[in-house]
Design goal:
single chain; alpha/beta; 13 helices; binds the ligand O=C(O)c1ccccc1NCC(=O)[C@H](O)[C@H](O)COP(=O)(O)O; indole-3-glycerol-phosphate synthase activity; Indole-3-glycerol_P_synth_dom; EC 4.1.1.48
Length: 255
């Protein structure tokens, strides 16, 4: 699946024109995740559809969702900007930035320096880089370019091998372990439990995908995660604020 998405993305990049630059106060993803009021940091995701689950919500208001996520205690908002597979939009980033004071992570398949430029133009604070999408050396170049433009990166791995290749080149400040197998689409927090041991202590660790219960959160926290990235579980709920309260119930997580 990742190959199919990346092929579409390469096609889009060949047509990409930079939008007008949007200016917003910068917010640090890493700092915000470190000073959470919840038992661990929460990157709450705005995602209308996905390749694995199809359409999650017929219509969405990214600004209304972002406001509720902020009220619920999220540390950052992840905004899907890919249109083809996730029904996202690059315009959502600025809309969310105008609405909340949290850092905004642009979630897309970033493969080229031009997309890094675009990410800075649309007003994001941070962007995703996927280790499985390119060589570690190329990822490092995009990472350095992003930081030179004031953007932080969430660097995502799906396996021990990917993390090993990455660490041979550099140690990202924020590392995500994605619990979703991109071939089968199955998710399991045991991915985080397995790979977290290899994450250097100086990196901030985010467990991503397939987090649906307080027990999932308790397990990844115990494995060493500093934060979680949650999409579907929140997007499917009408009362997203209550959904955050239910997921992060202290007693369930700390038992
Ligand atoms: O969500 C998918 O189906 C998907 C398929 C292929 C590549 C990426 C995909 N998702 C991107 C994500 O990383 C998730 O949206 C994010 O981690 C949240 O996951 P979830 O809480 O399971 O919605």
């Amino acid at each position: 699946m990742l190959e199919k998405i990346l092929a579409t993305k390469r096609e889009e990049i060949s047509q990409l024109q930079l939008p007008e630059k949007q200016y917003f106060p910068k917010k640090s993803l890493k700092a915000s995740l470190q000073k959470t009021s919840l038992p661990l940091g929460l990157i709450a995701e705005i995602k209308q559809a996905s390749p694995s689950k199809g359409v999650l919500c017929e219509t969405i208001s990214p600004t209304a969702i972002a406001r509720v996520y902020e009220e619920g205690g999220a540390s950052a908002i992840s905004v899907l900007t890919d249109r083809t597979y996730f029904q996202g939009d690059t315009a959502y980033v600025a809309e969310v930035k105008k609405t909340v004071s949290l850092p905004v992570l642009r979630k897309d398949f970033i493969l080229s320096p031009l997309q890094v430029e675009e990410t800075a133009c649309i007003g994001a604070d941070a962007m995703l880089l996927i280790a499985g999408a390119m060589e570690a050396k190329q990822l490092h170049e995009l990472y350095e370019l992003a930081y030179s433009k004031g953007l932080e990166c969430l660097v995502e791995v799906h396996s021990e091998e990917e993390l090993e290749s990455l660490l041979a080149v550099f140690t990202p400040e924020v590392i995500g372990i994605n619990n979703r197998n991109l071939k089968t689409f199955q998710t399991s927090v045991s991915q985080t439990e397995q790979i977290a041991k290899m994450v250097p202590k100086e990196a901030l660790l985010v467990s991503e995908s397939g987090i649906h219960t307080p027990d999932d959160i308790a397990r990844v926290k115990k494995a060493g995660a500093n934060a979680v990235l949650i999409g579907e579980q929140l997007m499917r709920k009408d009362d997203k604020r209550q959904a955050i309260i239910d997921l992060f119930s202290e007693s369930a997580i700390n038992q």
